[in-house]
Amino acid sequence: VPMLRPTLPDLKILMPRLKKAFQTGQITNASNVREFETLTAEYLGVKYCVAVSSCTSGLILTQKCFGLKGEVIVPSFTFHATAHSLLWNNLTPVFVDCRQDTFNIDEEKIEQLITEKTSAILAVYLYGNPPYMEKLQHIADKHNLKLIFDAAHAFGSKYKGIKAGGFGDAEVFSLSPTKLLITGEGGLVATNDALLADKLKIARNYGDSGNYDCEFNGLNARMAEFNAILGIEGLKIADKKIKIRNKIAKLYTEFFKNYKGISFQKIAKGNLSTFKDYSIIIDPDVLGIGRDAIAIALEKENIVTKKYFYPPVHLQKVYRPYTKAGLEITEKLSGRVLSLPIYCSLTDKIIEKIC
Prior knowledge:
Elements: H1 11-24, H2 31-44, E1 48-52, H3 55-66, E2 71-75, H4 80-87, E3 92-96, E4 118-124, H5 133-142, E5 146-150, E6 158-159, E7 162-163, E8 170-174, E9 187-191, H6 194-203, H7 225-234, H8 238-256, E10 262-264, E11 278-282, H9 284-287, H10 291-300, H11 328-334, E12 337-340, H12 348-354
Parallel strand pairs: 2-3, 2-4, 4-5, 5-8
Antiparallel strand pairs: 1-9, 6-7, 8-9, 10-11, 11-12
């Protein structure tokens, strides 16, 4: 039982578009990319989507286009690419603790970390779970900060019935094989900011608007037509995949809810998570067995699990110079988290075996 098995559109459906791209020789950043951007913007309910080569490049370029300087407040309980994007822009990550219930950034602890050097808050939808938007936006507005969301896990997630994509100044999605909407590799920057969208389209092409006279140092972060074609067809099955993943999460929770010593991520009422990962928190003092022992036992049964995210970012080698005390919840969750297989072709029988 692998951790991941991507659910992809039928190859026969993709072939007409693929064939046309081959025949025309337009194989990158052409008509299919533009169509994909239009369709995803409509799906998310935002004015603009800009397709890029990855979520990481999207985060890097978004920060670049905003001209951020100094410090950015960011959670440590996340994938390290969130923080990597800051280092690529010579920004200083200021790590903030997470909430024990939602696992997301603890908005109550942000303001105490804001200084005259702070230029932005970079929040995360952990596993696809939306953070508390109003509180984050209030803090950003109060202190005149940019609010950017690493929405890598969150394509299709909803906050109080509103799809992820239009919150803050920009939201950046991942479209890699572990995600709900898959383009092979790729990312999307969603925004209602016309200036940002225009600048991102230049930034993903080295900073060249098309006249070979670069305005700034961008990246080669274009999306290939093949990736966009996969995304166009994958968008048609996105809602179905969300329903299946939520059903699997519910089955896991129903099984484990009677075990003292096992707890779950809280999804607030009215919100929808895409469950990029389904993770349980194991208290060894109560359950009588630790996370690592359970992972080893499952591995012996050929069941793959992950420890998302261990170690937390602030304890990884590259980030130790930026590490400060005060991340007790992050360190506690990181040491106890176990992510179980979740993908659309996972059968009830296999789920029962895992449990």
